[in-house]
Amino acid sequence: MAEREIKYRGLKTFQIFNGETNSVWIYGFYLKRGTYGDPGPQAHIFVYENGYEGYRVEAETIGQFTGLLDKDGREIYEDDIVAFDDGKIGVVEFSGGCFVVRYGKRNTLRSLYDIHDWSMKILGNRFENPDLLAAMSHSKKKQEPNIPIIEPIAYERTE
């Protein structure tokens, strides 16, 4: 069995001296823990650099590394927005026990491992680039309900 690196990322937002906010992605392992004075367990990403250092991150931004890279060699995480050479744009999600890409007007789901050899390019993510999600949405006409379609996968039997 091939080993893959299990790691996460989360967005840490902090204020700088002039009152502006700045955000940075933290990459490492995920742990939900409480510290003194917290109202309850908080989301943390821990990084090992000469000892472990934990950073509190925004829980809704935590995404797991899929173990795959895009065509430029960038790591693909949950909530990344990817584009295919055929012009389709989709969002990476975890659904049904595997990583999938949700794309198209019918919210089609495809297993990321079935399509990772397609030329995918990361355009951004849904937290920093919500405008890219608009490119995925369809016109404002009355739409039928979005029912996810899972396309069948054809397997060849070799004997």
- How many strands, what sense, and barrel or not for the largest sheet? 6 strands, antiparallel
Contiguous uncertain segments of 5+ residues: 138-155
Main-sheet strand order equals 4-3-2-1-5-6
Distance between the termini: 22 Å
Order of helices and strands: EEEEEEEEEEHEHE
> Mean pLDDT, nearest integer?
79
Shape: globular
Q: Indicate the structural class.
A: mainly beta
Helicity, in percent? under 10%
Can you summarize this structure?
The protein is mainly beta. It has helices spanning 112-115, 130-136, and strands spanning 8-15, 21-33, 42-48, 52-56, 63-69, 75-77, 80-84, 89-95, 98-103, 108-111, 120-125, 149-150.
Keywords:
six-stranded mixed beta sheet; 12 strands; single chain; 159 residues; six-stranded antiparallel beta sheet; mainly beta; 2 helices
Please give a structural write-up:
By secondary structure, this protein is mainly beta. It is 7% helix and 46% strand. The protein has two helices and twelve strands. The protein has helices at 112-115, 130-136; strands at residues 8-15, 21-33, 42-48, 52-56, 63-69, 75-77, 80-84, 89-95, 98-103, 108-111, 120-125, 149-150. It has a six-stranded antiparallel sheet, with no helix packed on it. A six-stranded mixed sheet has the order 11-7-8-9-10-12. A hairpin with a 4-residue loop joins strand 9 and strand 10 (108-111). The chain is globular. Residues 138-155 have low confidence and may be disordered.
